[in-house]
Amino acid sequence: MILSSLAAALALQAATPVLAKPSSFADLSLEEATAPRCGVAFAIVQGWQVSGDTRGGAWPSMEEVGAREFFLGAIARLMDKYGLERSEVSTLILGETQRHQTDDFARVQAMMPGCLVLLQGT
């Protein structure tokens, strides 16, 4: 009985495809990347809000709308799906943040309306 259970577990493990770990959010499908990208945008906006930067004033309080919890959930799903370590997640987030900084944060402002809709739907 134990051997048959072990054999079944090993067969299931062998049948489960190993997913290649993404090196950036661009390696993910649109569905997989949207929530984490929005989470990064929320974190940037919250940073603006905390520091008193006027760019953050156009949006609701990220703390009050639960943006942090949304972000953590999105990242946890990625970690689970791809078996990512914290350092790998940090690299993904850093890359996305740098991408926004090269646009002088114009991309964040363009993303926020859709991201807020996604946040409200959770």
What does this structure look like?
This protein is mainly α and 122 residues long. The chain is built from 6 helices and no strands. The mean pLDDT is 85.
Average pLDDT figure: 85
- Cα shape: globular
User: Beta fraction of the residues?
Assistant: under 5%
Number of helices: 6
Q: pLDDT under 50 segments (min length 5)? A: none
Give a count of the beta strands, DSSP E runs of length 2 or more: 0
Helix % is over 70%
Q: What is Rg?
A: 18 Å
Span from first to last CA? 43 Å
Topology record:
Blueprint: H1 2-15, H2 30-51, H3 62-65, H4 67-82, H5 86-102, H6 106-120
Helix pairs in contact: 2-4, 2-5, 2-6
Labels describing this entry:
122 residues, mainly alpha, 6 helices, globular
Summarize the entry for a quick read:
The protein is built from 6 helices and no strands.
